[in-house]
Task: inverse folding
């Protein structure tokens, strides 16, 4: 490819909304371009990378027994009503109507559609297991689309769904996909970790997320160096404290004028925040009721765990308004579990502690020495957000924490969709048995950007060779110089013959300008034809290290051809 034909569109500065390196670099390198928040166009260089990422995913999915199909992005409402998700999915679902007022959505995921296809096509158990997948565009009306391709409203996902006869089959399919994902992310060069995960909107039981490790990741991973336990913070549990067996003291009401927060109250009363409990009241719009969650004063509530316990959904959970709190016989800033007129969820730690400070449900008052079971009641469960230093639930050693970008997630769905949607096979006894399902997603475009997040420096992107838009670029210092141009073209022809994806920078620009462009774009190898072209000597520059050596053109060609032939 000649650079003059390439629609190169590098920018000196990225638009203001780009905050993280990978987003800035993809925009500056002219790989992507957007018109509205969270919706991107892929320009020629970006599309080349995307295609390579997709092909690696496709190859491994095929190797591990997947069978590719492609579904429409538009899905009829009826399928979502069958699965019970039309309402539950909430405002993230992009809904639309046709001219006959029939309702549809733009698929955020395809459990319903794949289940519908398989129930129509597969009748006999002999056809199972089956693992159809697709690489396709998804739509989610994210509350805060951000960080470029990381959280878009339109993005590309590889989604796969396994259909098995029974649980044992699902276990096998799930393990297969776990191994397949490990292979894919390894081939893509990502530093990643598989962690235990919550099942969220998708449902089912049992899930792992694949996290590309990165400080800008939106996910928090809790992990144990000692035994290898690793979980997303939404899911992470901890080894709970032993029950405090001290004596219960007398419950006392104290005035705490204008002291509302845990920090204020514990300072005012001179007690450790660990000896207080905080009560947060939520409006659960899914079940249309108020609920209360109680955790130790020094803890944060994990709303995902609360939703799992209360049967709500994170999209439908909001903090209660002041007047709603009043309707429960309490008052904002002084809420406590004693006598509160709603369902109460109590963290194990609170139940295991003694003599806590709690709100008195009365303006400007708290209670001292409150104890679970004697003074207040509720459903005891794990509601807290795990923190660094908490003890590992498996081996009891302190947990560590790091950040990650969720690039993939796999779920055991069991019969969550096959049962309501009647995706069944006929057993030998003639019974209709629901298929046992799993689902497996990779954020293809998020993965692409995660690679940039892990492979860049101050000058630009450093694509791993197997996903780079081109393997090599030839830059003549002065294209008008006959000797330099002749050598450049000779190398270009030679590399193309050897199936190297190569660019010849034939633009009439200053050399510094051209070098900067290719360093920003991140082409792994640069061959510079300059002063010593007449001696058949070029400069060979490696993008990863920025190391430059003088070589004969034959050696430079050999270096690139060898590297390309070693791509896995
Ligand atoms: P998140 O918690 O980040 O919103 P999710 O749990 O909703 O992700 P899944 O439903 O499991 O995501 O989708 C499968 C994969 O699709 C995710 O692992 C992620 O890599 C990718 N993905 C999800 N939402 C987006 C998005 N808005 N933009 C880009 N990729 C996304
Ligand atoms: Mg999401």
Result:
């Amino acid at each position: 490819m000649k650079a003059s034909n390439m629609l190169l569109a590098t920018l000196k500065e990225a638009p203001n909304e780009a905050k993280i390196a990978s987003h800035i670099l993809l925009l500056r390198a002219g790989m992507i371009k957007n018109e509205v928040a969270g919706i991107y166009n892929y320009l020629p260089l970006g599309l080349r990378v995307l295609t390579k990422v997709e092909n690696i995913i496709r190859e491994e999915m095929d190797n591990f027994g997947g069978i590719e199909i492609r579904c429409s992005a538009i899905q009829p409402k009826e399928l979502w009503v069958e699965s019970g998700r039309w309402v539950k999915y909430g405002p993230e679902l992009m809904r639309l109507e046709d001219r006959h007022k029939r309702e549809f959505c733009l698929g955020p995921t395809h459990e319903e559609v794949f289940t519908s296809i398989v129930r129509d096509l597969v009748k006999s158990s002999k056809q199972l297991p089956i693992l159809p997948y697709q690489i396709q565009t998804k739509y989610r009306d994210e509350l805060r689309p951000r960080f470029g391709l990381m959280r878009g409203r339109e993005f590309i996902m590889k989604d796969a769904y396994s259909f098995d006869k029974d649980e044992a089959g699902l276990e096998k399919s799930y393990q297969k996909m776990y191994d397949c994902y490990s292979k894919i992310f390894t081939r893509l060069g990502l530093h990643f970790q598989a962690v235990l995960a919550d099942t969220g909107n998708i449902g089912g039981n049992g899930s792992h997320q694949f996290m590309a490790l990165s400080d800008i990741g939106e996910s928090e991973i809790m992990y144990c160096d000692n035994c290898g336990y690793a979980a997303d913070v939404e899911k992470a549990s901890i080894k709970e404290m032993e029950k405090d067996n001290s004596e219960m003291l007398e419950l006392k009401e104290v005035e705490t004028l204008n002291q509302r927060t845990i920090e204020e109250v514990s300072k005012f009363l001179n007690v450790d925040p660990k000896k207080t409990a905080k009560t947060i009241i939520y409006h659960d719009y899914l079940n249309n009721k108020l609920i209360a969650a109680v955790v130790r004063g020094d803890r944060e509530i994990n709303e995902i765990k609360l939703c799992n316990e209360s049967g709500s959904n994170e999209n439908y959970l909001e903090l209660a308004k002041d007047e709603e709190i009043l309707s429960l016989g309490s008052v904002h800033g002084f809420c406590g579990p004693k006598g509160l007129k709603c369902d109460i969820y109590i963290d194990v730690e609170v139940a295991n502690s003694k003599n806590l400070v709690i709100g008195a449900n009365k303006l400007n008052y708290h209670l001292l020495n409150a104890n679970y079971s004697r003074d207040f009641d509720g459903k005891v469960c794990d509601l807290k957000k795990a923190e660094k230093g908490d003890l590992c639930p498996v081996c009891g050693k302190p947990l560590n924490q790091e950040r990650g970008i969720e690039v993939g997630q796999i779920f055991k769905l069991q019969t969550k969709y096959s049962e309501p949607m009647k995706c069944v096979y006929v057993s030998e006894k003639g019974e209709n048995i629901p298929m046992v399902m799993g689902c497996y997603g990779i954020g293809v475009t998020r993965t692409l950007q995660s690679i940039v997040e892990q492979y860049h420096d101050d000058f630009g992107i450093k694509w791993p060779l197997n996903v780079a838009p081109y393997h090599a670029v030839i830059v003549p210092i002065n294209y008008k110089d006959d000797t330099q141009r002749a050598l450049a073209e000779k190398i270009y022809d030679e590399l193309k013959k050897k199936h190297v994806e190569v660019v010849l920078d034939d633009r009439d620009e200053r050399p510094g300008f051209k070098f900067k462009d290719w360093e920003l774009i991140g082409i792994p190898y640069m061959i510079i034809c300059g002063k010593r072209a007449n001696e058949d000597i070029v400069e060979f520059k490696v993008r990863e290290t920025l190391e430059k050596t003088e070589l004969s053109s034959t050696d430079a060609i050999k270096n690139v051809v060898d590297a390309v032939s070693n791509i896995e």
